[in-house]
Request: fold
Amino acid sequence: MEMKGKGFTYTKTAYNYISFYKDGKWDEGILREDDKITISSLSTALHYGQECFEGLKAYRRKDGRIQLFRVEDNAKRFQFSCERLAMPVIPVDVFIEAVKKVVLANEKFVPLYGKMDTLYIRPFMIGVGDNLGLRPAKEYIFNIMCSPVGAYFDGPAKPVDMVVSDYDRAAPNGTGHVKVGGNYAASLYPQIRARKEGFADCIFLDPRSHTKIEEVGAANFIAITKDGKYITPRSQSILDSITNRSLKWLAKHVLHIDVLEQDVYINELDHLAEAGACGTAAVVTPIGSITFGGHKHFFPAHEHIGPTIKKLYDLITGIQFGDLEDPNHWVTIL
Reply:
């Protein structure tokens, strides 16, 4: 049965995983068909934003098997986010096994090989229960949903246009480094404005000085300098993207180019030949231009994807879909 993702939208699948935390412990968790949750109107997730989530994908290989990409890293980052929001952690092995169960239970929804569509997996945790005061919940729900999806942006072939936002995504010492709902809620209005103005998304500058690029909507910013180096911003307000981690490794160990984690000033872009956004949803999407202060800066690779970002895209997607050898124990075949 072929299931194709139509853009990055939700299609109900057969099963999801749910587990409840009560009296200081998690239950065993089950697969269920219902994709709805009933919670107290006073849940901390609703009033105080006590919620975090992850995003990963299942890929159909050419031989028909299904594989996951760096699922252990997602499990560890999920723990990090939970700890930051004072929520109980999910053991790494429990997280991984639950993801496997969800994917295998929804095997018929994993798109066929060759179309670059995937099964997107969304684990999340919310604080629930009757809570009125500002304090961590005593009860929690851990849920894993999934849906077949297509590309988040239009794809890697055509670079997209971005605009710098006047708003901040996160505070300097806030929660920008963890994957929590509040960061994304803060980005919704700027994103809507950007798209109304004809841009693919907005770029957020550092919240302290508003002079340096931090994130591209819900993705990390990457670039290739004119002397062939891979560069990406480093800040306490940036989410540690698993896709970016992978690209940095591939750039260094496969393409043998220097990898720099340093400031990228919005007024100093002339040294960059290629630019892009990377993340689980975006994969690697090239950026053709950035508009800031009424000026539209075009990168040299603004009409077509640049050669280095194209190589990185081909490398990471080749590994994710099983066409290239797993270089660093990133793949889990189900």
Observations:
- Residues 156 and 310 are 8 Å apart (CA to CA).
- The mean pLDDT is 93.
